[in-house]
């Protein structure tokens, strides 16, 4: 059976992701208590349902202790289990809650060590939730939705659905340092030292996927040397991540604007690794 667990920080887009999966034919359950997962899987199998998605979040946080063991048991029984964890910067989350005027799921918890009636602030709720879900995040494919539109998130969730079962999926992600380092990166490489095509007026409006920019950067010895260094680093450590049973590894490549150099490097690395690994590409500034 194909099982996709959706978790993450409240306000990061779990409902959007669950809707995408429902449209894709998954049987979807929101706010499932983790202890009921094996029973639900057995029930769905009796109904000949082969694809299911369950949202598990802070509303069930105190029941998450045994979830990693449950996931391993389901995998040992032959089920394909993936975890998608959505997160976002605190600033983005505060803005979203302000726009929707909805309260945080933890907002009604009494503040620790304070008098009765004192409630957690929104920021405190977000940080508390991050701590509660930290263990689950480590097991998951993480997506930082801070600057993503709903349409982009939908497209990225569809990419996750299409990933075939593999020991490790490499996610190459370009971003702009002027916006900030994405929260979903395992490794970050800075390519701002490379010559910037932005200052060539004939290249400014193009991206790192366009042939003139590709030819320009391929002609820079420094760009080729940096590419080789990053490639060798990734090749060296992939076996260790597979040994650690990691399902996803996100490599962030950043430049100033996220349009030329980082995009070029992501495309070049992905082209190399796609013959030996499951590879996905994301460009946060090309949406």
Overview of this structure, please?
GTP binds at residues 57-60. By secondary structure, this protein is of the alpha/beta class. The protein has two domains: 2-161, P-loop containing nucleotide triphosphate hydrolases (Rossmann fold); 169-283, no CATH class. It is 40% helix and 18% strand. It has ten helices and nine strands. The chain has a five-stranded parallel β-sheet, with helices on both faces. The chain has a four-stranded parallel β-sheet with strand order 7-8-6-9, covered by helices on one side. Helix 2 links the parallel strand 2 (27-29) and strand 3. Helix 1 packs across helix 7. The chain is globular, with a radius of gyration of 21 Å. The mean pLDDT is 90.
State the helicity in percent bands. 25-40%
User: Any idea how many domains?
Assistant: 2
Largest sheet: 5 strands, parallel
Using the 3D structure, state the CATH architecture of the largest domain.
3-Layer(aba) Sandwich
Instruction: Measure the end-to-end span.
Output: 33 Å
- Contiguous runs where pLDDT drops below 50 for at least 5 residues: none
Our estimate of the beta-strand percent is: 15-25%
List strands and helices in order, with pairings:
Layout: E1 2-8, H1 14-23, E2 27-29, H2 37-46, E3 51-55, H3 67-76, E4 80-87, H4 90-100, H5 122-132, H6 134-138, E5 141-144, H7 150-162, E6 169-176, E7 187-190, H8 211-218, H9 221-243, E8 248-255, H10 261-273, E9 278-283
Parallel strand pairs: 1-3, 1-4, 2-3, 4-5, 6-8, 6-9, 7-8
Helix pairs in contact: 1-7
Binding site for ATP: 8-15
GO molecular function: ATP binding; GTP binding
Keywords: ATP-binding, GTP-binding, Nucleotide-binding
């Amino acid at each position: 059976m194909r099982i996709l667990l959706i978790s993450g920080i409240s306000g990061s887009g779990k409902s959007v992701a669950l809707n995408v999966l429902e449209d894709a034919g998954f049987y979807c359950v929101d706010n499932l208590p983790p202890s009921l997962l094996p029973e639900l899987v057995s029930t769905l199998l009796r109904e000949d349902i082969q694809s299911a998605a369950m949202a598990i979040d802070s509303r069930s946080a105190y029941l998450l202790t045994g979830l990693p063991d449950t996931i391993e048991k389901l995998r040992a029984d032959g089920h394909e289990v993936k975890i998608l964890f959505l997160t976002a910067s605190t600033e983005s989350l505060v803005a979203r809650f302000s726009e929707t005027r909805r309260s945080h799921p933890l907002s009604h918890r009494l503040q620790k060590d304070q008098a009765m009636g004192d409630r957690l602030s929104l920021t405190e709720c977000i940080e508390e939730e991050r701590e509660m879900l930290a263990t689950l995040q480590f097991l998951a494919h993480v997506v930082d939705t801070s600057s993503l539109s709903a349409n982009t998130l939908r497209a990225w969730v569809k990419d996750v659905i299409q990933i075939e079962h593999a020991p490790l999926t490499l996610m190459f992600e370009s971003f702009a340092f002027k916006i900030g380092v994405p929260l979903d990166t395992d490794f970050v490489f800075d390519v701002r030292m490379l010559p910037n095509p932005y200052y060539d007026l004939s290249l400014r409006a193009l991206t790192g996927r366009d042939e003139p920019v590709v030819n320009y950067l391929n002609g820079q010895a420094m760009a080729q040397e940096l590419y080789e260094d990053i490639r060798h680093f990734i090749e060296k450590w992939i076996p260790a991540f597979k040994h650690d049973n990691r399902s996803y590894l996100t490599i962030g490549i950043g430049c100033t604007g996220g349009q030329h150099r980082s995009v070029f490097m992501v495309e070049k690395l992905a082209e190399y690794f796609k013959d030996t690994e499951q590879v996905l590409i994301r460009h946060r500034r090309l949406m």
